[in-house]
Amino acid sequence: MSIPIEEPSDEEYKIVKDFLQPKSTIFAKLLKVQDEVRRAGSVTSGALVWKSPKADEYFKNQKARAVQIVSEEQRANFFNMMTKIGDYFQEKEKLIPPPSKRMNFDVLDLCMAPGGYNRFAQVCAISLPTGEGGLEIHLPNWQENHRLKVKLLNLTMLSAELGFPTLASQDHPSTSKFSNHIPYAGRQFDLVFCDGHVLPTNEPEEDSTSEIRRLADAQMVMALQRIKSAGTIVVLLHQVYNPRVLRLLKVFDNISQINLFKPPFCHAKRTSFYLVAKNVDPLHEVARRLVRDMRNSWRVRTANAFGLEIPGDPIELNDGEEKMEDIMQSFGGRLITLAEPVWKIQTEAMEKAFLGAKN
User: Is the pTM of this model over 0.85?
Assistant: First the structure.
């Protein structure tokens, strides 16, 4: 099964919703609550608003805080939030073994800052330099921490790591932005975190879609190229019923043991959740196909973003793409079992915060 490069169509969303709504009362309630608070459309200023005034105020404040995390208090609060999520992960999922079995347990954190997860094990990390818009690492004395190795790199520009070292020609003005460095080459890890995200800006959201996908593609390629056999990959995703996300979940269900995880704080009102994939088989043919698809998705989106020519023959990205109807028939029941706890947390949080419900 392939992951298409195109964004999901309205028809695919309809197929997913038509399958899930009659089979899951929790999902049907989530859609109802989302409809009561969701964005109402463009206003004369060009900004998007929400039907619920409380939701409109909440998400405007969320975006403002994410765009400009500048004060020491803001940085400390964000670090504490990520630390709390990391502690909750450890409590519920036991991602990292007890100290007696931790000596040879290696972690790769692909978008590390501010560093809240990295207190329990030996960690190699990549973090976007602050000069390129990355967050500051908030771990005390992290440069001297012998358990922590950090490379300050833009993951989306590692063209050799992502399979296309000559994507930018030598005479192209953007060539210097790309790097053929291969971080942690030859290393394999027991646990890989892929929870990086593109910080929101004041630009229209559709302008950031390509950058979001480039980062997601790059993280997934590197994770599957560095994970040990039977290791664990943790991925931050958004909206379980997004057809593209569904395809990814089905892929991981074929190559690992998966669970969906949503902290009942921090992420509760949002569509975000975590995929926890244990016992990953990176050599499985389905995993290899996923790496191929993500590499080529990154290549096409990067070429479009920087005005590059794509060398060589075009690669058919949608080779073997499964129809959404077939995915729902084969995976829909499994999806409901996995996703209902996530939908329940979000529904109750939105009702309480935006509609005045008492849970």
Answer: yes
